[in-house]
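Quick check before the chapter quiz. The format below is the same one you will see on the exam, so make sure you can read both the input and the output lines.
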Amino acid sequence: MTVPAPPARRGPSAVGRVLPLLLLVALLAPMALLFVQTWRLTADDRDLASRERLGVEYLRALAPVTHALVDAQTAAVAARPANSEALTRAVEAAASVDARIGDELRTRERWAGLRARIEALGARGPADPEAAFTAYGEATDLLLALHGKVRETSGLVRDPRSDSFFLQDASRGLPETVVATGRLADLAVLADRRPAADRNRTAAEIAALRVAVLTPAGNLVTDLRAAVDSSESADLGPSVLTPLDTYQRAVEALAAHSAPAGRDAAVDQAQVAGARLNAQSAARQLQPVILDELDALLAGRLDDLDRDRWLTGAAGALAVLLWSALGAVWFAAVRRARRPAAEVRREPDGAAAGPDDTPWQPTGVRGAEPRRLQPAGPARGPGSAQWGPADAAR
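Here is the expected output.
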């Protein structure tokens, strides 16, 4: 008697096998896109902050050059020997900074032109005050242009944060005010030596320089107060506001002393010189404070960006591990689905035996030999073989 085998299980269809893979890919694609975009934006922000710190370093090196050049101009206009050692040290320090980061900030050409002009002024020595005033004015114009070049190529002018943006804008107004205060005080000295026919021209020049002093100084005060208001740092206000007030009072005093009381009144040279020294001293105290605070903000931003990059990388690695685990589960499921529905077992002699091909055994008899099926007829006992002849005679 043959026992029918159970029906084989149907394997999953092609759509059922491919659909999990499509879901895995659909899950991985947006995660990969998000990771790449986040990593790229973080890298761009980090590169910008790094270049801005280079710009701050360059501006810090240019500050002594600015003050020393303005002092040399004042000495030349007054027809006395200038302190060339201070200017030489400042130029050498700025040259070392330019040699190190000038290529990245693209300042090599401008610095070379400015240095050549400064060295030419030092070699000339005291000359005609009017010629010295003009020559130093051209040199300081090149210096201010270099300040602007550094701020532009370093990305400081495009800073995305409000507090650091206002600080970098204040760093622009400070050297402009220092140069303008030196020119205003020196022009007040030259005014007494000019002929009466040039009095109107001199008064117009002094008025223009007074505006050149007050305008960047007012912008600087506005920028620093805006930086303090928008900053989350608790140290920015106390460190900036005190020297800022001193600087503002000194600049206002210089502008007041440089304005004559009447049309024919002369300017008090002693008061102008004293106000100029106070303004430049306040600027020397304020400039490193601005640059230090700006550099601290940029350094903190770099730390935050590094932490974000680390978190982004860790999240990306975790996503890859999870996707790999899901892929392994899907691959194992596909392999199981490709096996036969009924496992084929092998006998020792190599013949195949299905799960329902076991020979029939009598009920309740364990280990008995399988009995061959008998033809249909009356049942016979074990002793029916010896009564066979008798049955035939009967």
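If your answer matched, good. The first strand starts at residue 345 and ends at 346.
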